Amino acid sequence: MKRTLQITVLISLLTMSSFAQKRSQVLPADQEIFLKYGADRLGKRHDAAMQRFRDNRLGAFIHWGLYAIPGGEWKGKVYDGAAEWLKSWAQVPTDEWLKLMDQWNPKRFNPKAWAKMARKMGVKYVKITTKHHEGFCLWPSKYSKYTVAQTPYKKDILGELVKAYNEEGIDVHFYFSVMDWSHPDYRSDIKSKEDEATFARFLEFTDNQLKELATRYPTVKDFWFDGTWDASIKKNGWWTAHVERMLKEMLPGVTINSRLRADDYGKRHFDSNGHLMGDYESGYERRLPDPVKDLKVTRWDWEACMTIPENQWGYHKDWSLSYVKTPLEVLERIIHAVSMGGNMVVNFGPQADGDFRPEEKELAESIGKWMKENGECVYGCDYAGWDKQPWGYYTRQGENVYMVVFNSPYSKHLVVKTPKGIQIVKGTLLNGKEVAVKETSRNEYNVNMPAKDPGAPFVIKLQIEENTNATDKYRDALT
Ligand code: FHN
């Protein structure tokens, strides 16, 4: 009897861990296992705050910390890895690294100018690294000795930025790394009772910092957690569920990324039953999701983030070490994300003096120019559900479907295939000028290119009529 019980327990443990390995595969309801710390909710959030997150669509990331001072170079050697990881690449002892605080005095830092630059770029929200892995805090945290308050600059950078961005109508999201290289109680794994006690102190410290952030800056709209992949966090899934609840109680409406979360079995992002934890999936870093494998079309909200060079988030002095995306390539990724029902966040790594490098300023300006004329196909738009065509991407808002054309065909005709029951009423450029639309066969149209090739990605707005009950005479006649 005892043996049978042992075998049964073993089988169910094995089954559970195999569930835990299958990413985002939702189990049939009757096969779901009980989870104390799994997803809080099934499906998307539909409240106004979440809708605002979704409608914003375009954001900027700011990675700013001590790593901006060496900019990828330590003791004469330039490292080509991500600049914000230099402490690790160059194996700099923590004390030595934190001495960089004596040099933190960004003389050219002008929060109002940063906020203007973001508004002109057309971003609706900015994600700021309150604390990256190095542990240096951009706010004067009373729980740490490693903050802006202990530097020659002294002032609360985060507070200045929140104010300036909010004044420009831009939402602020907080990036927060749980992994903290400056804290003696941080553990990457829990291997003993002692680790357990030490790490419990660390979690309490983290709770205090999070409560402090939520209290000092109540207009924050989102917490984006990072550095949560270590075994210590996976073994404390309860804590990630607690943080999500705690912040949501303190700041009603706040959104939280999936990267924070681990469940009872250490399964991250998606719980052991395959349900998304947090409010939106945030695993798409420097890549876009596969619309079929990853998204199952649009079952959950998501946000992708990207660097301009291949993999530099913080300031690196030498961008020639990897490929640097052109504004056009960045724009295409933004549109591609929106066309699949997601948000895109473009990263900036300001210099130690508080200014942005010229390449970043130029990129922001160029994206902003395009967004000013064409933002209608981005903000508030979603996945259209139409078959993708080689000329570009569709986005949709209500009865308007936007064609965002990146590749102009020689034929001067843009082929559009509509789902059954959808007819195109009219096509216009965003300046209101009409373009000819011809039905070529059932649910297939040729939309004319504008007479003069715009020479840059352009948008055609299709006004549609949906009649899903319409009998399809053509097909009905054939069958
Ligand atoms: O290690 C970090 C990295 O430095 C950067 O902050 C990115 C942003 O998504 N997140 C981590 C890597 O996943």
From TrEMBL:
SUPFAM superfamilies to which the protein is assigned, alphabetical: (Trans)glycosidases
Domain of life from the UniProt record: Bacteria
Keyword Cell cycle: no
Pfam families in UniProt: Alpha_L_fucos
Gene3D superfamilies: Glycosidases, Golgi alpha-mannosidase II
Site (May be important for catalysis): residue numbering on this chain: C305
InterPro entries tied to this protein: FUC_metazoa-typ, GH, Glyco_hydro_29, Glyco_hydro_29_N, Glyco_hydro_b
One term under GO cellular component: lysosome
Keyword Zinc appears in the UniProt entry: no
GO biological process: fucose metabolic process; glycoside catabolic process
Occurrences of domain Glycoside hydrolase family 29 N-terminal (ranges): 41-376
Gene Ontology MF, one: alpha-L-fucosidase activity
Keywords: Glycosidase, Hydrolase, Signal
Enzyme nomenclature, EC number: 3.2.1.51
Signal peptide: 1-20
Top EC class of this enzyme: hydrolase
Function (record text): Alpha-L-fucosidase is responsible for hydrolyzing the alpha-1,6-linked fucose joined to the reducing-end N-acetylglucosamine of the carbohydrate moieties of glycoproteins.
Family: Belongs to the glycosyl hydrolase 29 family.
Protein name stated in the entry: alpha-L-fucosidase
Organism: Bacteroides fragilis
Lineage, top ranks: Bacteria, Pseudomonadati, Bacteroidota, Bacteroidia, Bacteroidales
